[in-house]
Amino acid sequence: MTPDGHGAPHAGWADVPYAIAAFVRKTFVIAELEARKLRHDPTELFMRAVQPTLWLLVFGQVFGKYRWHGEGSYLDFLAPGILAQSVLFIAIFYGITIIWERDLGLVHKMLVTPTPRSALVLGKALSAGVRAISQVVLIFIISLIVGVHINWNPLHLLAIVLIVVLGAACFSTFSLVIACLVKTRERFMGIGQLMTMPLFFASNAIYPIEIMPNWLKVVARVNPLTYQVDALRGLMVVGGVSHYSIALDLGMLLGITTVFVLLGSRLYRNVVG
Amino acid sequence: MPIIETTALTRRFADVLAVDDFNISVDEGEVFGLLGPNGAGKTTVIKMLVTLLVPTSGEAAVAGWSIRRGAAAVRRNVGYVPQMLSADGQLSGYENLLIFAKLYDIPRRERRQRINEALTFMGLGDVANSLVRTYSGGMIRRLEIAQSMLHHPRVLFLDEPTVGLDPSARRAVWERIAELQERLGMTIFLTTHMMEEADSLCRRVAIMHRGRVAALDTPAALKASLDREGATLDDVFIHYAGDSLAAVGGGSYRDTRRARRTARRLG
Ligand SMILES: Nc1ncnc2c1ncn2[C@@H]1O[C@H](COP(=O)(O)OP(=O)(O)OP(=O)(O)O)[C@@H](O)[C@H]1O
Ligand SMILES: [Mg+2]
Questions:
Q1: Binary contact (B88, A114; C-beta < 8 A)
Q2: Are B4 and B187 in contact (CB under 8 A)?
Q3: Beta-sheet strand order (sheet of B204-209)
Q4: Concatenated DSSP letters of chain B
Q5: Would you call A150 helix, strand, or coil by DSSP?
Q6: Is A66's pLDDT higher than 80?
Q7: Rounded distance, CA B102 to CA A74, Å?
C-alpha cells in the first residue's frame, strides 16, 4: 500500500527530468544559503586581499627585475598566477566548513531533508565560486595599480569568471572530500597546510613549467591549478597565450571537478557517522 | 498500523554495540519518549530512523516506508531536531526557515505564510529578522522545532529537545510540543533525561539500557509495576537502568564537546 502523496522511492525513467530539475534547484538553494551568510558578514573577503597584494607588489616587482627572461613583463606573467593562487587558497580550506557544520548538527539536518547529496556538494562548490569571484575584482584592482596590461575584452572577462568559478569548485570539492575522510578539524588543517604549498609551487603560477626539473614537470601537468593558470594567462593580459588551449584547460577542470563532486556525494554522509 | 516499527534493529560501531536487537512500535499521533542513561543508544536509534545511519542489521519502517529501501520517502515524512543546538547563527531566523522551505519543495506562494505561521507558533515572530547568533538557547531550540515542522511531517524526532534550557524556556518548549500533537495530530518521538518531561508529555515511554528496550509502557503503568507506594518515573528509571555508571560510553564526552563548540561558535 502507498501512503498518501508523500513521495515514492522507486524512480522510473519518466522521473529523470524531474530529478534533474530538482537537483539544479537544490544546488542553487545551497549556494543561496552560503551567499546569504556572506552578505551578512563580508569582512572575510577583504581579509583575503592582503596576501595577493603582497605577492604582486613585493615578489612581482623584485623577482621581475632579478631574473625574468620571458616575453612581456614579469608582472603580466604573474598576475594570472596570483589570481589562480588566491582562488586556490579560498577553496582549499573550504572543506572545514562541513566539519564545523557537522559539529553544529547542521549537516545532520541537511542530510535528513530530501536533497540529493550531489546537490549539497555542488551547492557548496558554487558558493566557493562566488567567494572566488570577489577575488577577481580585488586582483584586477591591484593589477591595475601595479601596471599589469589587462585585457578588457568583455568576452575574456566573462571567461575569466567562468574559469575562476570552476577552479574554486574543483579545489573546494577536493577539500570537501578530504574533510569527509579525516573528519576532525585538527587533522584537516594539518593536511590542508601540507597540500597548499606543493599545489602552488608545482604549477606554472609563478614561473613557467619549462624551467622546472623533469619530475616536477610531471607533477605540474597533473595539477589542476596549472590548467586554471594556463587559461587565465590566455585571457587576462594583453597578448597572453595559453599553452594547452583554453578548451583543454576547461575540459580538464570540468572533468576533475566532476570526479570530486561524485566522490564527495558518496562520502558526504561519512562525516556524521 | 503503527507509524514507527522497528524489528531487531541493531547498530554496531567497531567494538561498541550501540543498539542491540531493538524492538518498538509507535502509534500514529502519540508522543513517545525514549529514556535511558548516557550512551544507552538513544541518539543512534533516532539517527537510524531518520536515515542518517544505516543499521548493521534489522529493519525499521517509518510512515510506512523502510528506512533501508525507502530512505527518500522517509525523509519527506519526518522532521528532525538533533541533540546539539543546530540553527545557523550566521543567518536570521527567517532565513533559516526559508532555506528549509525551499529544500522541502514548499511552493513559492505558500512559503512566506508557512514560515510566518511556524515562527509565530513558536513565539519567534518578533525576532524573525535577527541573526540567530543573537538568540538564547531556548529561542534556538524553538527555531529548530519551527524549522523541522515547516513541511508538516508525519513524525517529528526530537533528540533531547530541552537539554541545557532554563526552566521557563523548557516549559515553553513543552507547551509547543504538546500543542503540535494536539492540534496537528503529529506523532512525536523524543528522547530526554528529564523524567518530569517524559511524565507530563509522553503517552508511552521506553526505557533503553545498553542498546536494548528494558521497559515500555505508559508512565502510570511503569510506576505501578514497581509495586511501591508513591513511586516516581525516576524510580522506574533507576530500577531498569540503574547500573548506568558501568555503561558510560564515549558518547557523552563527544556530545559535551560538541555542545561547548556550539556555544562558542554561536556566542
Ligand atoms: N559515530 C560513532 N562512532 C563510534 N561510537 C559511537 C558513535 N556514535 C555513538 N557511538 C557509541 O554508541 C553508544 C551509544 O551512543 P548514543 O549517542 O546513541 O547514546 P545516547 O543514548 O544518545 O547517549 P546520550 O544520553 O549521552 O546522548 C555510545 O557508547 C557511543 O560512544
Ligand atoms: Mg544522545
A1: no
A2: yes
A3: B78-81, B155-159, B187-192, B31-35, B204-209, B212-217
A4: --SEEEEEEEEEETTEEEEEEE--EE-TT-EEEEE--TTSSHHHHHHHHTTSS--SEEEEEETTEETTT-HHHHHHHEEEE-SS--S-TTSBHHHHHHHHHHHTT--HHHHHHHHHHHHHHTT-GGGTTSBGGGS-HHHHHHHHHHHHHTT--SEEEEESTTTT--HHHHHHHHHHHHHHHHHH--EEEEEES-HHHHHHH-SEEEEEETTEEEEEE-HHHHHHHTT-TT--HHHHHHHHHTTGGGG--HHHHHHHHHHHHHHHHH-
A5: strand
A6: no
A7: 49
For B41: left if phi > 0, alpha if psi spans -120 to 50, otherwise beta; the answer is left
Residue A261: its H or E element? helix A246-267
DSSP A104: T
- Ligand 1, atom 16, lies closest to the CA of B41
Q: Rounded CA gap, B233 and A133, in Å?
A: 59
CA distance A190 to A174: 15
Range in A57-61, A99-103, B47-51 the model is least confident about = A57-61
Of A102, A115, A2, the C-alpha closest to B75 is A115
Across the interface, whether the CB atoms of A3 and B77 are under 8 A apart is answered yes
Q: Over pLDDT 90: what percentage of chain B?
A: 80
Return the ligand 1 atom nearest residue B254 CA.
31
pLDDT at A11: 57
List, for residues B233-252, the tens digit of each pLDDT value: 999 999 998 765 544 444 44
d(CA B158, CA B82) in angstroms, rounded, equals 7
| Better pLDDT: A64 or B230 | B230
Q: Which residue among A8, A32, A108 sits closest to B52, beta carbon to beta carbon?
A: A108
* CA distances to B28, B42, B162, B205 from B189, in Å: 11, 11, 14, 10
- One-letter amino acid for residue B96 of the chain: N
pLDDT at B20 over 50: yes
Q: Please say if the pLDDT value at position B116 is more than 50.
A: yes
**What does the alpha-carbon distance between residue B249 and residue B253 come to, in Å, rounded to a whole number?**
8
**Pick from B52, B63, B102: CB nearest A111:** B52
B88 touches chain A (CB under 8 A): yes
Cell, residue B162: 530541552
Instruction: Please tell me the residue having the least CA distance from ligand 1 atom 25.
Output: B38
Contact B86 A108 (CB under 8 A): yes
Question: Count of CB atoms within 10 A of residue A53's CB?
Answer: 18
Distance from C-alpha of A221 to C-alpha of A219, rounded to nearest angstrom: 5
Predicted complex ipTM exceeds 0.85: yes
Question: Which of B11, B16, B157, B163 to mutate to test ligand 1, by most ligand atoms within 8 A of the CB atom?
Answer: B16
